[in-house]
Amino acid sequence: MTTSPAVSRFPVPSLGQMPDDIRTRIVGVQEKSGFVPNVFLALAARPDEFRAFFAYHDALMEKDSGLSKAEREMIVVATSAANQCQYCVIAHGAILRIRAKNPQIADQIAVNYRKADISPRQKAMLDFAMKVSRSAETVGDADFDTLKAHGFNDDDVWDITAVAAFFALSNRMANVTAMRPNDEFYLMGRLPKP
Fold first, then answer.
1. DSSP assignment of the chain, as one string?
2. Does the model's pTM come out above 0.85?
């Protein structure tokens, strides 16, 4: 008899053990996507942190902004690959493929965004996001000048920074908890829906 690999190296509560608001959110995600992404289950053991994490996630990733939703996912995939976060590369790679309507883009960005089929503007965005993720202490006025030359305004720069910084936290939590990507993510957005 084989068992499924663990979602996390930490205990994961059952739906019945979760506070009502968290259970309701998870059930809603399951109804929409057909499965429960393991990040919801892994973080549900810490209800206050779950709420704070997803409130900030939603504020960054779901709002209207100068960055498209696909561009925000590009930031997540590129920085998560640099941080060697398997969960976020796989999960957000699936979301990127869907939002960009491009089955190759997530793999290209995860391996080497500099050679990906993206615009010079998006490459500049990812250059800056990588700097925020890996060496934020070196960010300076020249970085802002480069982004402005590509049409990014101060709000856009803030958003690039916030997404890269938030997912640096997420990457580290996913790595330490050994959060496992759901099998469903691997095929999402790779083939047209029948």
1. ---PPPS-SS----GGGS-HHHHHHHHHHHHHHSS--HHHHHHTTSHHHHHHHHHHHHHHHSS--SS-HHHHHHHHHHHHHHTT-HHHHHHHHHHHHHHHT-SSHHHHHHHHGGGSS--HHHHHHHHHHHHHHHHGGG--HHHHHHHHHTT--HHHHHHHHHHHHHHHHHHHHHHHHTPPPPGGGGTTTTS---
2. yes
